[in-house]
Every structure is written in C-alpha cells, then in structure tokens.
Specification:
- This is Thioredoxin family protein.
- Pfam families: Thioredoxin_9.
- The structure is a single chain.
- This protein has one domain: 3-Layer(aba) Sandwich (Glutaredoxin), CATH 3.40.30.10.
- 53% of the residues lie in helices and 15% in strands.
- The protein has a 6-stranded mixed β-sheet, with helices on both faces.
- The mean pLDDT is 95.
Length: 200
C-alpha cells in the first residue's frame, strides 16, 4: 500500500480543514438550505440536515472501549488522517465523529477533512471498486510521506451487509439504506472504532 505522497496529496493536506471547521461549515450550509458539493438540490440539502443532526448527536455520545482508548493513546506514529467527504453522505456522518474521537486521544494523529467534489484528482486515486465512494480515509505518514493505508467508505460489518444485499438484489433499495442507518444507530460507532484502531 506504500505509495509515495505526491503534489496532489500534498496540496490537499495543505488546504484541508479540521473536523471542527468542517462541522461549522456543514451547520452554516444547512442553515442556508444548502449542502457541500458541486450539485445543489433539495434531496442533498435534506440529507445534510439529517447528517448535521447525526454528527451533533454522535459527537456527544460516541464511547470508545478501554482497549481502543489504550491503543490510541499508545500509538507512537506521526500521521495525517485525511478524509474525503461531503455533507450529504450518511456513511460519513456516522463514521467521522468516531475518527475525531480517536484522533483527539493522540497528538500523533492529525485528522483533516477535504471535500470530494473539490478534490476529484485525489479522489480518483482512491476509488472503491471503481467508484468515488465516500467517506474515504487516507493514512499518510508525515515523516516518510507515504500513504500507509486507506479506509472506507463503510465499517467492515456494514460493508459486508452492502455486499451481501447487492449480490442478492443487484442494487441497494431505499429500504435497505434505511436498515443500514438503523444498524449504525444500534452499533453506536463501535465497528468503525474497531476498524480504525486496526490502522494504528
């Protein structure tokens, strides 16, 4: 997985914003009836309203296990966690608060955010099965300037649920997407936290 960091990734890291700045941006856009991204429509702005509420709730309620707390605190690397996202993405809203909680535990993890539609060249280097799926987390070693790993767009259990459903039904239905959000709400970020701890 070790790809040397290049100009596109360097530029993206330089212009990236913090999670706090991203949250403020989403909240401000929601108040204007907008979403992030190049496409603006009622459906995307409605998803953004929902996701703003989800992130507000998860920012307060995500709890990490002792094992994950310990692993995060003991991590001795110096990395950037750069995530590609947009405000209308339900998977991002359910997982980014967990990323922030883990990054807060260790100064060696610099969690940064860039918007997918403004960083298409970067996004196209980190496709999932040929698609611009988000959120996409890129782990960059700040010293060696190598990409150490990637994660996303969903935690491992949700990824399997999606794969199984697609194999059986061909595509994801609105009902399945609803079921997936129910799973996220029950899971409370635990599967995401376990996956992210494996990156440390």
């Amino acid at each position: 997985m070790e790809i040397l960091i290049d100009d596109i990734l360097t530029e993206s890291l330089e212009k990236a914003i913090t999670y706090k700045e991203y949250r403020e941006l989403v909240t401000a856009l929601v108040e204007e009836g907008k979403s992030t991204g190049l496409v603006q429509n009622e459906s995307l702005s409605n998803y953004s309203v929902l996701n703003d509420k989800r992130m507000k709730r998860l920012d307060k309620t995500v709890k990490l296990t002792e094992e994950i707390l310990e692993k995060a605190r003991e991590f001795d690397g110096d990395v950037s966690w750069l995530v590609l996202t947009e405000s209308w993405c339900g998977d991002a809203a359910q997982t980014m608060p967990v990323m922030e909680k883990i990054a807060e535990l260790n100064e060696g993890i610099d969690f940064k955010v860039v918007l997918r539609d403004e960083n298409e060249e970067l996004m196209d280097r980190f496709l999932t099965n040929g698609a611009r799926s988000i959120p996409k987390l890129i782990v960059v070693d700040n010293k060696s300037k190598e990409v150490l790993n990637t994660w996303g767009p969903r935690p491992s259990v949700a990824t399997k649920m999606v794969q199984d459903y697609k194999e059986e039904h061909g595509s994801l239905t609105p009902e399945f997407k609803q079921d997936l959000q129910v799973w996220y709400n029950k899971d409370k970020g635990q599967n995401t936290a376990e996956d992210l701890a494996d990156l440390l």
